[in-house]
Amino acid sequence: MGSKIEVHLNHLIDRYSKLTVCREDIIKAYGLLEEAYSNGRKLLVCGNGGSASDSEHIVGELMKEFKLKRKVYGDHAAVLKEIDPDLGQILAEHLQGALPAISLTGHSSLQTAYMNDAVPELVFAQQVNGYGKPGDVFLGISTSGNSKNVLYAAVNAKAKGLKVIGLTGAKENKLMKYADVCIRVPETETYKIQELHLPVYHCLCLMLEDKFFGV
């Protein structure tokens, strides 16, 4: 992990000292994500309730600019302009670099159809079945670490050759069994766990952006 990347982690710990206990697991989670993105893979992420909102939030930080500029340069920009000079110029000026990520919580037609026709608790696992490829990363967010639909998705992710990251609260939980790394923030009440999840995933997104789009 480069010094610029580590600055983000140090800044996180400075602001949230209680997350010191999560430092090594955050580093491990970052390593899995960096490896996946370095190899052209993607992130699948899900959760329930507030954690569903966190899933969408993470995708928003990865799929567009977060803090750094991510302009499209070089060959891609040239090809855009070659296909259509006018439209290509606008695209080249305004498209942003992206780290591919999909929230499994946002596909209402698919989700409601599957939950109506099949087993509702397998709704995230079904999406992992369709989207997941070996080398991808699955991030399951669950304050308890025991959400059944997240657990089913984690098992299927493991079976399909994805790396699995858990983001949970402090208590030992079932998601730990399937996760390659589980970041257990040191709180036990749901809202307090969620308050610490946000700075953790913001830190991971900042680290990834610096790695892939930093100067």
Oligomer: single chain
SSE string: HHEHHHEHHEHEHEH
Tell me the number of strands.
5
Q: Count of DSSP helices?
A: 10
Shape estimate? globular
Nearest-integer average pLDDT = 97
Q: Widest sheet: strand order?
A: 2-1-3-4-5
Helical content (DSSP H or I, runs of 4+): 55-70%
Terminal CA distance reads 16 Å
Which class do the helix and strand fractions yield? alpha/beta
Tell me the major beta sheet: 5 strands, parallel
Strand content: 5-15%
- Ranges where pLDDT stays below 50 over 5 or more residues in a row are none
- From the alpha carbons, calculate the radius of gyration and give it in angstroms: 18 Å
Topology overview:
Layout: H1 3-15, H2 23-38, E1 43-46, H3 50-62, H4 74-83, H5 85-94, E2 101-103, H6 108-117, H7 123-131, E3 137-141, H8 148-159, E4 163-168, H9 175-178, E5 181-184, H10 190-213
Parallel strand pairs: 1-2, 1-3, 3-4, 4-5
What does this molecule look like?
The protein has 215 residues and is α/β, with parallel strands linked by helices. 56% of the residues lie in helices and 10% in strands. The chain has ten helices and five strands; from the N terminus they run ααβαααβααβαβαβα. A five-stranded parallel beta sheet has the order 2-1-3-4-5, with helices on both faces. α8 links the parallel β3 and β4. α1 packs antiparallel against α10 (190-213) and α4 packs antiparallel against α5 (85-94). The longest helix is centred in the C-terminal third of the chain and has 24 residues, at 190-213. The chain is globular and about 55 Å long. The mean pLDDT is 97.
